Amino acid sequence: MSFNRIYGLFLRHFFLIKSSLPRILDLIYWPTIQIILWGFISLFFSTYSDYYNNTLGVILTCAILYDFLFRSSISFNMLFLEEIWSRNFTNLFIAPMKISEIIISLVLTALIRTLIGLIPAILITSPLFGISILNLGFPLFFLFLSLYIFGITLGLFVSSGLLRYGPAFENIAWSSLFLLAPLGCIYYPIEILPGFLQELARVLPLVYIFEEARSILVNQIVDYSNIKNAFMLNLIYLFIGVILFYYSFSQARKKGSLINIGE
Amino acid sequence: MQLPIVVQNLSKFYSKKEAVKNISFKINKNEIVGLLGPNGCGKTTTIAMMLGLLKPSNGKVFIDGEDIEKKRISLLHKMNFISPYIELPKKLTVRENLIVYGKLYGVKEIYKRINYLSDKLRLREILNNKTGELSSGQKNRVSLAKALINDPKILFLDEPTASLDPETGDFVRSFIEKISKEKNMSILLASHNMDEVKRLCKQVLMMKDGSLIDQGTPEDLIIRHGKENLEEVFLKLNRS
Q: How far apart, in whole angstroms, are the C-alpha atoms of residue A121 and residue A128?
């Protein structure tokens, strides 16, 4: 055993971590988010144990909807990361592709990737648990569409970071959705959050989407104002996401990150 | 007639470094120009600006008389690039990669083009192999096929024969020589192989610390600096 070799390998990773703020934040991030999310879920069920009379159905339906959001965002990011991992990034950006073409291509491919993952999950919930997400009826289409738009918007935000900062931003790609999980009020109503977090949560389309899903499943009431609010917020974020992507591309061309994307 | 490539007073500054300092040169039709210099002297930065990958701090690059900063997308149709530092997706077969890039470059008869390049570059037997499973020489030939998929008028070659065995290196050099004549291509070749530069290039640009410090035909440079060969000229200029 050589202490120097052990220390050498330790240094290889230590140098990498200490030079990268995104990596340090990532180490702090996961435990914090897990505690916050499960803290609110536990608080909700201990305070309102009789809120749901169809707990399994509501929880599973919300889990599928949340997974749809997660998959669509991650699919978008993965398409970008695959180019970095395969060292194909530069080839893509010297091809005569407009930024709009890149975005549209990623949006469509991400949808196919998401559906490949989601359809089997939807199909097995019925035989295994006797629950069908289709119970949400026609509004389900709007909920999926709204989640998909928000998913690709998050994908645009993260890809903008990847363009500008390279693979150091990769961990953000994986963790961005978990940051929103506690604030998105996926498994509990917004009232369970402390006041200041409620204000923050109300600017996320997720709150309205999941509120609508619960309203249909628990109270059998379709409230189109929730869907309208979600779409309006989505359009604002999508617009910002597209602008940010163009800006990051322009910055990447100035800073040279399109040619030396690496560790 | 417009020259294929005109570089005017091109500079690139980063916050702490001047990577390229006010360089100017031209490349004629059907001309291979060598870009020589030590590692980190600004060769790749220069090529990146010519490809529109990097925004110059000052100066301009004109391709067929048009500014790359203003007509980036339309000019990229006329160009292509090969470098050992970039690769094609490893999990895709050679054929799939060439189809993808054929589509990205808007090649009309993709399969005809792939067949043509497969014959020229001896790729027929490996078309259905995964790109990541190929040898260095095979990968190099596939990258060259990708770089020629759009039948470019202008080609940027960054160390095209680095890490190749002598036989494959010679095949690639002969191919570049032949295709540039057949297609009247203008080529900028960055290389550390002085014999390769002497064999292929009509003109040589010598860079050091981001500046263009000398240029001329290989023979002119050798005579002017009173040396035996291009390698000695390179060493003299970089040690001065």
A: 11
- Give the one of A88, A96, A98 whose C-beta lies nearest to B86's C-beta: A88
- Mean per-residue pLDDT, A222-236: 94
ipTM above 0.95, yes or no: no
Which of A82, A91, A253 lies at the smallest CB-CB distance from B86? A91
Separation in Å, CA B6 to CA A91, B61, B109: 23, 6, 31
- Amino acid type, B77: H
Q: How many Cβ atoms sit within 10 Å of the Cβ of residue B112? A: 10
pLDDT at A172: 73
Q: Which helix (H) or strand (E) holds B100?
A: helix B94-104
Mean pLDDT calculated for residue range B18-25: 95
**For the residues B204-228, what does the mean pLDDT come to?**
94
Strand partners, B79: B154
Find the CB nearest A259 among B54, B89, B104: B54
- What backbone torsions phi and psi does residue A253 show, to the nearest 5 degrees? -70, -30
B9, B60 Cβ separation under 8 angstroms: yes
Helices A3-18 and A21-47: crossing angle, nearest 10°? 80
Structure token pair of residue A220: 């059998």
Pick the range with the lowest mean pLDDT from A58-62, B130-134, B156-160: A58-62
Task: Extract the tokens encoding A10.
Answer: 């330790």
> Distances from the Cα of B60 to the Cαs of A209, B41, B53, B66, B78, in angstroms?
50, 19, 13, 10, 18
Kindly state the tokens that stand for B21. Answer: 């300092």
Best of A94, A163, A251 to substitute, by most chain B Cβ atoms within 10 angstroms, is A94
Q: Which CATH architecture has domain B5-239?
A: 3-Layer(aba) Sandwich (3.40)
Contacts of B83 in chain A (CB under 8 A): 90
Domain map of chain A by residue range? 21-255
Q: If you average pLDDT over residues B68-80, what whole number do you get?
A: 95
d(CA B31, CA A47): 79
**By the 8 A CB rule, do B101 and A95 touch?**
yes
Q: What single DSSP character describes residue B130?
A: B
| SS3 (DSSP) at A101 | helix
Tell me how many helices (H) and strands (E) chain A has. 10, 0
User: Rounded to whole angstroms, what are the CA distances from A166 to B13, B55, B82?
Assistant: 20, 18, 21
Q: Distance (Å, rounded) from C-alpha A31 to C-alpha A130? A: 34
Question: pLDDT confidence of A263, banded at 50, 70, 90?
Answer: very low
Report which secondary-structure segment, H or E, holds B34. Answer: strand B32-36
Residue B162 has which token pair? 């680095």
Q: What mean pLDDT, rounded, does chain A reach?
A: 84
Q: What is the mean pLDDT of chain B?
A: 93
Measured distance CA(B194)–CA(B188) in Å, rounded: 15
Q: Which residue has the higher pLDDT, A15 or A161?
A: A161
